Amino acid sequence: xxxxxxxxxxxxxxxxxxxxxxxxxxxxxxxxxxxxxxxxxxxxxxxxxxxxxxxxxxxxxxxxxxxxxxxxxxxxxxxxxxxxxxxxxxxxxxxxxxxxxxxxxxxxxxxxxxxxxxxxxxxxxxxxxxxxxxxxxxxxxxxxxxxxxxxxxxxxxxxxxxxxxxxxxxxxxxxxxxxxxxxxxxxxxxxxxxxxxxxxxxxxxxxxxxxxxxxxxxxxxxxxxxx
Length: 227
Description:
By secondary structure, the protein is mainly alpha-helical.
């Protein structure tokens, strides 16, 4: 009952209230971003949501408009306002619109870029059986201080046991840890490192590779290579 109906009702209610209440802050942040640098106020990026469906995630732009998110040879060019709104997690505010649109929830596994989903195993993709969230179990218990496998394991744990009590607990723990600098963004180099790990794991666990390994092991057995 909670997962099917009440959770969504709470998402709509609180997202609506917060959007109205935060309107002055939204206008101020938007003006400061526009004054400091060229480019759009809101940054959109393709992310993977429920059952692997791709949607446009919204954030306040915290980087220079010409920042190349795929060039790992250069650090991300954060603006002065961008550094401030990231440290206060204000850059996440436009995701309230994603919540109202039914693309996200307040609590759930974080939505990652589609490349993550492409290179996950079948079991790992089970984290996408629920709506992604603005925060989640992995964010509450370490965020980017965790390894990619630890994050996924936390997400899978959440998917198995969704409840109102668990969601409330995650919100309070997130509020306690959100200013911990060790849990802040890992940057594009960190993202590429995580993708490399997933690619290797996906290659090892793919059916074709499993069949090859089985044939190879059978050959070794026939040749007496196993003691």
